[in-house]
Design brief:
The structure is a homotetramer. Chain A is an all-alpha fold. Chain A has helices at residues 10-18, 21-34, 44-51, 55-61, 65-89, 94-111, 113-123, 133-154, 164-184, 191-205. The first copy, chain A, binds a DNA duplex through helix 4.
DNA sequence: CATGAATGAGTGTTCATTCAT
DNA sequence: TATGAATGAACACTCATTCAT
């Protein structure tokens, strides 16, 4: 998820300056391969061959095959977090910010389906996830939304009888829920109407009535 | 999907009469194992051990490991098709029949989540699916619904400006779409309200207004 | 240690009847290779090639490479225990039995230097030894000697103020101590004079004076 | 063997003056690591990390991993030879000199068990030993003893009907023989009584009777 | 003098599959 | 009908070593 191909984000640019060529080629090779097959069915030999490097090089730069995956995922989540923050900068009002965040979430899912799919289906349910760097990066991302909710509660826009964390979970969970089928069945989705749907529910359930714009 | 434990369907009974003990034991072994682990992580050694037979016996009865999976899946789809037909027997009117079929679909998904999951996630997107017996059985199943739609068009209950096959696809696709998240996130789902939702849409979009009961 | 090449012991004969050819070939291959290189420097590929079988066959019959080693070692220890028992059958008096056991120990070390070396140097000091089948077989062997000591204590031939287990340890430990250099430097050793040396010590330190023959 | 920690021998001092820092750090790293694991199980990566230098630097100063080992071993043997010579300076009489040499040998084994063990078990039996610098240094050391024996023969203290080289071999071989078990089983040993034992044998078998002090 | 980057050749182990009986 | 024996091909991962800079 969360990758904006073409646009090189700040952190990516930094990475390319510091990271050795081989490391980048390996990461790109896995990204490419993930487009066509599942992580488990991709072999290290294949990754190396696609990257045009020696198999052993993978283990110089990444702890193991799964470590490489987590690194890629984490990188995109961090990139995404950055983009989200930039996106929110020129929006006013908690409700509008949340709406923007929801739209951004869908947009991000949409723009990088592979990573969304892998994160949700192949990584998150596996043991060790909560110790992975992917988890920490995902948390950083969701913390941005959490902070938004807390702000909303503080300034009275959002009801204060539900813990902020719950509300954040419901918002991001709903997005995922709504997006998942389009991900699995590889169909297009109308992200504007999805955003609208979730906002309707939020208006009725989370925000106080008078705050509706 | 589509298994009705306890109730031995006609085709299953037939199978048990004709199929050698070993073949059945192998199929059951895989079914059992699939409840706890993914198909790829199940080894033939494990299947044989669970079945209490020799590993080589798998290859006497099935082309290979994947063939065994397709056979099981196909069996359940055929069983399911039979059940669906029985179900529809005492329902009158195309709309009511379709509604029943939709409910049955959800019920079947629900009763055998493993097979649904495997079919949708582990089998259908893989190369060779359209040559597999699973595909043919799935087609037989969907043909029952297709026939229903065609009847509806013939008797004027359903609009005739959309190809029957499209309508059938939309119906079954919607069911899957609605059910999938509950499958992936392993949550319960209210099949009655799901049925109702889909029927609402069908009423507005597919059936002619006056046909609403 | 403890193997008597040429002479096929009862248990070995039984083994050869029941064990598949491949399993025997693998075990023999490792035995052969151990004559020239250390266990760690022998690869599974080498074992398989020497045995004339496929590498994977090793893992059908043995848990892993180390398991194969333990199995071989254990087999020889069990064989040896059997031989020792036969050897002791026609000896009278605890002292004479112990003397025979000591002589047998040296003879066994001598006849199968490879196994002695591996057991003492490559296996016994490694983690997991006390859970290995080698340990259990070695224990069965030493239990024969322990029983002898206990008999001696019971019939008054051996002093009763030192635990039987200590005495057994001292006896077998002394044998090993005395034999080890000849093992490592691969030199011949006079087993009769070694036996005599240890017996002298035993007479002065363990047996009561009057029991000396 | 043969290391005298704390005391910096002349050759070591020389070495430290001439050798680049990196080379010394690498040698020390291996010495440190050898205290806890076998040479084969130590990786070049580990050596470099412990030394705080780049892995490739090992290959600038040493032919390969084994070359590094030989260099260390050789260094200690040369150090040891120097110490032995110093030790013998203020001893009079061939017999007393030899006795001192024997005691020194045990003392040296004792003070640096790791090197003794590696030399005897891991290095000396391997192909290429006789071309290694370790062998040449070991020879320089044993030549000191050989010279002693030759002196004894010349001045009539030692019988002249056995080649000097044989006598030297017997002396050093006996020391090793006696020390080895304590090395392998990692037990303490009384070096004074060991020295005495060997001297007894020498007196009876090598020296002429009247030369006994 | 020292290093970052890269690799060839293995390392033990696994697994679906075949075949003679 | 069923099995014991055997295997080819792959698997993730490791390591000593090289080389350009």
């Amino acid at each position: 998820m969360i990758v904006h191909p073409g646009k090189k984000s700040a952190s990516n640019a930094a990475r390319e300056r510091s990271d050795p060529e081989g490391k980048i080629k390996i990461a790109n090779a896995l990204k490419t391969l993930l487009q066509k097959k599942s992580f488990n069915s991709i072999t290290t030999a294949e990754i190396a061959k696609t990257a045009g490097v020696n198999e052993a090089l993978i283990y110089r730069y990444y702890k193991n095959k799964r470590g490489l995956l987590h690194n890629i995922l984490s990188q995109y989540l961090l990139d995404s977090e950055l983009q989200l923050k930039l996106c929110l900068r020129d929006v006013n009002g908690t409700f509008n910010k949340l709406k923007k965040a929801i739209w951004f979430q869908f947009d991000t899912y949409n723009k990088n389906r592979i990573f969304a799919k892998i994160h949700v289906i192949e990584v998150r349910n596996f043991p060790g996830y909560f110790q992975s760097e992917t988890y920490f990066s995902a948390k950083k991302y969701s913390d941005v939304v959490l902070k938004l909710v807390k702000e909303g509660i503080a300034n009275g826009e959002i009801r204060d009888d539900i813990p902020a964390w719950y509300i954040m979970q419901i918002i991001l969970g709903s997005c995922e829920h709504l997006f998942l089928p389009s991900l699995i069945f590889d169909r297009e989705i109308d992200i504007d109407s999805c955003t609208e749907s979730i906002c309707q529910i939020l208006l009725q359930g989370v925000f106080k009535v008078e705050s509706a714009s």
